[in-house]
Specification:
The structure holds 2 protein chains of 2 kinds. Chain A is about 40% helix and about 10% strand. Chain A is an alpha/beta fold. Chain A has a domain at about 5-255 and about 465-495: Amidase signature (AS) enzymes (Alpha-Beta Complex). The chains are: A alpha/beta, B mainly alpha.
């Protein structure tokens, strides 16, 4: 059910926040084989739900469409009441002394937290198989991965457990699992959503965002998440960043009335590099069909080029590990996190605690980061990657001279089998080819369901906008979702 | 190009990771393929380009904000220490450093 419909039922007292929370908790329990949740505490959830109902009874429901609506948070966001593990043994029992800004804002909007969601360890992965607490299963086919790193967040929406979740995206971690689970997600412009209390992976890339069934739901959620935060030094307080997302989205929707076609005046750029060899034929076909829908309803299709698409992979896999090796140096077994049982001295304690606490992918990335930042290699790898990053960002700006939105696939394939690619890290990295450039450029990107492959696995359409164009992207996606019903399809596992 | 045992040992020291020689050997094979991937960057001519550290600096100069230099209430000390593996008298306990 759409969040606005849930809000109407709550406002009309047809349902209470407590009943909605109980419904979500029941589904979490019934679908626990998906392994989407890492921490559930019905007492905490029901107390929050009772507070939401009391707030409504006290007249606090006016202009608060999210009051009483259930949500679950990716375990990258720290929470005072719930354990925050980042999917890592390192933080297995960690309870934060503060809430992430995103958690605070959604809680102030009245949302009721039903638990914390499984993810790849420290958000490093494309399949959710790197979680120390086991892989999440894809509700469309439980032998398949849900995508990653926000795999639990995407699976929980697809399975109908909650109408809203949070996720984070460093190189595609909101968009790719959304595509593989057939749901909608948006990664905002870098700096729009506060990173305070988001356990850091790569600080110049990390962005939080919402996941839900539809673009309209995402617009409501993003509206509550964005905004300047003095606690995040990269949080934006420019005029463009101050435009309210929901109002701008609503204005865009209201701006077109019949006989206007839905996409009159919209120029859609289609990068030829996104349809090169390696793209699964079913994915290519569904994405072409989706773009044809935009064209049929008034959009102009423009052929564009993003010539450094392939280079975004090595660029990302230098910059992200470099920042990760620096960010993860805080885990030393002293102030928080895992401490080894046996050690000789202080240095040994730190090195053993880190070796025991971090999983294999995290260790690989820390070692890669240490290498590209080390004396003699810093210029050749790290600075070179930052220079290529500028070229990649400039390519997008060139492309936006001839189009308003860019569209293409989110990922080259649909979900693969659990275990199929986990032995070859580079094969996994290559899967990120269409999402990394957007992250490196700090641009907003969306995933919108656009059909299924021959195995009935979902395909995602990626919509990329220029900086601060989230309302236009969400409006285009919303109109597409008025013309199609892919976002309403529900997997067998959820019924 | 590949990582020899000496380089891998140096990296694990730099990264403060106590990895066994066997594990380091198996990680080494994976690291070699990562190295082959990232070495592709060398072929791009980037002469004269300024490295991009903050993505939005493509739009204009970005200066990271500093907060005013005034005392502010932080998170409660006891709450901050609750996750520590070992504490004593409000201090984090670590193995002896000086004999």
């Amino acid at each position: 059910m759409a969040i606005l419909d849930i809000a109407k039922r709550l406002a009309g007292r047809e349902v209470s926040a407590v009943e909605l929370a109980q419904d979500s908790l029941g589904k979490i329990n019934a679908l626990r084989d998906l392994n989407a949740f890492l921490h559930v505490d019905p007492d905490l959830t029901l107390a929050e739900a009772r507070r939401a109902d009391a707030r409504r009874e006290a007249g606090g429901g006016e202009g608060k469409p999210l009051l009483g609506v259930p949500i679950a948070h990716k375990d990258i966001f720290v929470t005072r009441d719930w354990r925050s593990t980042a999917g890592s043994k390192m933080l297995a029992n960690y309870v934060s002394p503060f809430d992430a800004t995103v958690v605070t804002r959604l809680s102030e909007a009245g949302m009721v937290c039903v638990g914390k969601l499984n993810c790849d360890e420290f958000a490093m992965g494309s399949s959710n198989e790197n979680s120390a607490f086991g892989p999440v299963k894809n509700p469309w086919d439980t032998s398949c991965i849900p995508g990653g790193s926000s795999g639990g967040s995407a699976a929980a929406i697809a399975a109908g457990i909650v109408p809203a979740t949070t996720g984070t995206d460093t190189g595609g971690s909101l968009r790719q699992p959304a595509a593989m689970c057939g749901i909608t997600a948006i990664k905002p412009t870098y700096g729009r959503v506060s990173r305070y209390g988001m356990i850091a992976f790569a600080s110049s890339l990390d962005q939080g965002g919402p996941m839900a069934r539809s673009a309209e739901d995402c617009a409501l959620l993003l509206d509550a998440m964005v905004g300047f935060d003095p606690l995040d030094s990269t949080s934006l307080d420019t005029q463009e960043a101050k435009v309210p997302v929901w109002r701008a989205f609503s204005d865009q929707i209201a701006s077109k009335r019949p006989p206007d076609k839905d996409f009159d005046g919209l120029r859609v750029g289609v990068p030829k590099e996104f349809f090169a060899a390696g793209l699964a034929p079913d994915v290519a076909a569904r994405v072409h069909e989706a773009i044809a829908t935009f064209e049929k309803h008034g959009a102009t299709i423009v052929a564009i080029s993003l010539p450094r698409t392939a280079l975004s992979i090595p660029t990302y896999y230098v910059i992200a590990p470099a920042e990760a090796s620096s960010n993860l140096s805080r885990f030393d077994g002293m102030r928080f996190g895992h401490r080894a049982a046996d050690y000789k001295d202080l240095g040994d304690m730190i090195a053993k605690s880190r070796a025991e606490g971090f999983g294999r992918e995290v260790q690989r990335r820390i070692l890669t980061g240490a290498y590209v930042l080390s004396h003699g290699y810093y210029d050749a790898y790290y600075l070179q990657a930052q220079r290529v990053r500028r070229l990649i960002a400039d390519d997008f700006q060139d492309a936006f001279k001839s189009c308003d939105l860019i569209m293409g696939p989110v990922a080259p394939t649909t979900a693969w089998k659990i275990g199929e690619k986990s032995s070859d890290p580079v094969a996994m990295y290559l899967e990120d080819i269409f999402t990394l450039g957007v992250s490196l450029a700090g641009l907003p990107g969306m995933s919108v369901p656009c059909g299924f492959d021959a195995s009935n696995l979902p395909v995602g359409l990626q919509i990329i906008g220029n900086y601060f164009q989230e309302p236009a992207m969400l409006a285009a996606a919303h109109r597409y979702q008025q013309l199609t019903d892919w976002h309403l399809r529900i997997p067998g596992a959820a019924t | 190009m590949s990582f020899d045992a000496e380089t891998l040992n140096r990296l694990s020291r730099l990264a403060a990771l106590d990895i066994s020689p066997d594990q380091l050997r198996s990680l080494g094979g994976e690291m070699d393929s990562i190295l082959a991937l990232i070495t592709q960057l060398q072929a791009t001519d980037t002469a004269g380009l300024t490295p991009l550290a903050h993505p939005l600096s493509v739009l204009g100069e970005i200066t990271l904000r500093l907060r005013a230099d005034v005392a502010a209430a932080g998170i409660d000390r006891a709450a901050n220490m609750e996750n520590a593996p070992e504490t004593e008298n409000g201090l984090f306990l670590v193995p002896k450093v000086l004999e």
